[in-house]
Design a protein that fits this description.
The chain is an all-alpha fold. Helices cover about 80% and strands about 0% of the residues.
Length: about 190
């Protein structure tokens, strides 16, 4: 149900999507969807929460994939995983781009995605010996800046196809790494 809901919400937008359409594509009755999720807003929130958990898993897997890699490469792997996730869940990302139209729990879920991603990135950065002495609040703020840049570049990529996940990650890492490197040296 959530996979179909992600696709339909992403294609039509929240307001234009009907529960009838989702029920028909899933092959269940509309009352069954209401039994599970309570409302269209509840279904949207569950769809976004599913994507949030999948994204976190992808980021953790990327971070853990090569513990022996140089710090820059580990950060690049996480950012690449973020862009790859967006590419693989284009419909979910379309929902996030239109967050101004999201309400209630769905809007809160979008913010949790941002917080979770920034927290995971900050924790990863502070695990690197080069950055272990940075003040925790500063690391979280830097992670927020990086997440904002990643989101904007993801929006740009959706309008300008041709930039791969690896290329996008390299752009972000190049911008951020010099700044992080100067903090580590200080």
């Amino acid at each position: 149900m959530l996979e179909v809901a992600e696709r339909v919400f992403g294609a039509n937008g929240f307001h234009a999507t009907t529960m009838d359409e989702i029920a028909e594509q899933v092959g269940v009755t509309k009352p069954l969807i209401y039994d599970y999720f309570g409302s269209k807003e509840g279904l949207l929130a569950a769809t976004i929460e599913r994507a949030r958990h999948q994204l976190l898993d992808a980021l953790i897997t990327a971070w853990d994939s090569d513990a022996e890699a140089a710090p820059r490469e580990r950060v690049a792997a996480v950012i690449t995983a973020f862009f790859t996730f967006i590419d693989e869940h284009e419909q979910a990302f379309a929902l996030l781009r239109t967050e101004g139209s999201l309400i209630g729990e769905a809007a809160a879920s979008v913010e949790r995605i941002r917080q979770q991603t920034a927290k995971a990135l900050a924790e990863g950065i502070t695990m690197l010996p080069e950055f272990a002495d940075l003040a925790p609040g500063r690391v979280v703020a830097l992670a927020e800046v990086m997440i904002g840049g990643i989101e904007r570049l993801a929006v740009y990529r959706s309008a300008h196809p041709g930039i791969t996940s690896d290329e996008a990650a390299e752009l972000v890492v190049t911008m951020a790494w010099d700044g992080l490197g100067s903090l580590a040296r200080a």
